[in-house]
Each structure stands twice: as structure tokens, then as C-alpha cells.
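User: two proteins, same treatment. go.

Assistant:
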Amino acid sequence: MNLLEPLTELVDDSDVTLYECRSCGTTLSADTEECRQCGSTEIAHYEW
């Protein structure tokens, strides 16, 4: 089972976007420009 499957089941059929720091993996909000944990500006986003 995919680790994200339980999360997607909790959300309706709308699109889901996850933002996270590429350096440390901290989950971030869409408007974040710098990671609050490590200071990296490398922010990844995943849509499904």
C-alpha cells in the first residue's frame, strides 16, 4: 500500500498538493519560501 493512500481517502475527489522541503522533508504550506526547520529555499510540491 502506498503511504499516501490513507491520506487521499480522507480528502474528497478534489486535487491534493503537498509542499515539502527537499533538504529535510518538512511539510510546508503553499506560501512558504524558506523551510522553518533547516532554512532551505528548495521547496518541492507534489500533486495527485
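Protein 2:
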Amino acid sequence: MAATWPYRYSRRATQLRRSLMRELIALTAHPDIISFAGGLPAPDLLPVAEMRDCMEAVLARDGARAFQYGPPYAPLKEALVEHMARLGVRTRPEEIFITTGAQQALDVLFRLLVDRGTSAVLEETVYTGISQSLISQGARLLTVPTDLHSGIDTDAVAWHFQNGLRPRLLAVVPDFHNPLGVSLSADKRERLIELGRRYGVPIIEDNPYSLLRYQGEPLPALKSLDETGGVIFIGSFSKLLAPALRLGWIVAPEPLLQKLTVVKETADLETSALTQRVVAEFYRRGLMEPHLERVRQVYRQRLAAMQAALAREMPPAVCWSTPAGGIFLWLCLPQGSDAQALLPQAVETERVAFIPGVAFSPDGHSANAMRLNFSNTPPAQIDEGITRLARVIKQSLDLT
């Protein structure tokens, strides 16, 4: 039915725009297309049987209580204390806040900390959920570059902190960055902590990928370096277990979490009691680490397959990031190229898809780049898909 009523939209609603990335993923999600466009876990690695057993155990034990309203589930918070210890973060259940996914965590934190017209610092190429949520709060975005080898430009961060702009927060993805794949170097982690402490700017550490490391030694979570409560950690089960769980968490000082409770109540009152209990049971049975080891083994092979295919097929003028983990790789065409203009040809003639880099840039940067996902595609398809993609790039940009 067509809407004929004269609806009047709020100023906030008229300023929001659907994520270009979501639109492109919908366009490329056809079964005959080799898609590097999404950010999906491998479907064959989703722990369906284990989660079914956990749910049956929860229902047998808790019955109707699993379907009721209720406070955050204490056993899950206790499991997350141990989970955070693996990242070097010492915390208590009282400092853990359960959310309906990491996107809600970003949303409630930004609603708590940002007023319309105030500023926030973020990377000029960044996960769209961060920039969209800040824009929805009316924030002024102060963007800084990111080095593909060492992460966010801390000199640019320092400039914004010390030049009277008084940003309300810095948002950063320190490990296996979405979309760049880069990890923040150890020295830059130390400097960010020092800058936040010196200028009183809280740091939002969006960290869904750190346990998906395939090579090298782990780097400390920013929260593990925090001695003053200035770092707020966001975690998620979407990439570790399953996106449909819609389950995430925040680690922050207890007084801040009391404020967050009020903010979250205006959105959904509380996170699913059933989902919390099932994931807590997954931890209780000792299933998390074996599951993550299987995931790491498969993704390690898929990342290697993509890197090998790129090295074999791409012309010298094309370069790409070399992540040690996560699920994304960033590919850069020569300056002046338009990756978004290549997408229709890639889809229509070669049946291969990617996300243009401009989809991740609030300022229109990264027009010559694209994000490639390797977690959702088997090695043989990765090999074929990169061959097809290279063919489009060589023909369209005359890089043969």
C-alpha cells in the first residue's frame, strides 16, 4: 500500500542515509556471484549442533525463566570476565554491560557521550556503523588518516585533541581493522592511552576481531593499558560465534554503566534472556576455545589463499594490506581510479563482487580502494574470484 498520509519526519530522520555498503551487499548477494562483499562468518563454521544442545539444556534447566524479562545474566558476565582476561583486561562482572550486539553498544555510548554539534575523532576510513551512529547524534566528525602498516595517525589525533576542539571521544578499531585489516602498533597503543589521559578524551575501543589472529604475537588491548577508566571496550559475538545471536558487551567503569542502563532502556529495555543463557552455557561447556581454534584454522587458510592469488594475478600498480587476522583485506588501485565505477562491470561480466572503499569514508576518501572479505569463501572460489577481479581491473584501468 502506498503511503498517502502527510508524514512529517524528524530532522534526525531526514539526515540519515542508508549505508551504501548494505545496499551494495544486497545487490551482489546472488548465488552465482563470487562475493567478497560481505562481512559474513563461514556458514559451515557456525556451531549449529553445539548451540542446539546448549539451548536444549537451557530450556530443560530454566524452562519459562529463559523466556522472561530479567536482569543481565550473571553467569554470562562471569564468563566474559574470563574472556577479557585472555585479552589482558582485568575486570569485574559489575563493569560488564550486556548489549543487543556491538552496534547497540556504539549507539548507547554515543547517545550517552555526544551532544548535537559536539565533535568526535574517528578514522577517515572506518566501519560504517561508527560514522552512521555518530552522524545520527548530530556529531561533528573529525577524521584522521590511518597507516596501512601501523594504524591510526596518532599525530593527527594529538592535533585534534590539543587545538581547542575538545572532542567528546575517539573511536578506534585497534585489531584487524574493518575495513583496512591493519592493526594498531604497540607504540601507537601506548601513545593513544597517554593522549586520552592527558586531554581527558575517552577512547572507544571497538574490538570484535582480536581473537581471530592467525600469525604473530597478540598485541595488548587498549583497555588492558588503561589505568584511569578512560578506555571503553566493545566486544561482540557476531564474528566469534554467530551474527544472529545479536549479543555484545561493553567493559567500562561501573558509574558509567549505571548511566548506560537508563539509555539502553529507551531502546529495548534489555537483551534477550534466552540468548544470554545459551551463550553462557556454551562457555560453561568449554566449547568456546575449540570453536575459535577451528575458525582460526579455516580463516588462516582462506587469508593465505587470497594473498597468494593477489600476488599471482594483480598488476604491479595494485597493492593491498597484509592483515595477521580478522576477516578483511584492503586493496588499493592507482590514485585517481574509481573502484565504485568498476563494480557494475565486475558483477555483470565477471560475476565477482566487492565493496568500494568510498562506502567506508564519511569524507569521500578511498575512492581508489576496495574491501575484500575472505572468511565466507572457500579457497578454490577465492582463487577463481581474484582471477576474475584482476581481469576486470587490468581491462578497465589498462594495467595489462
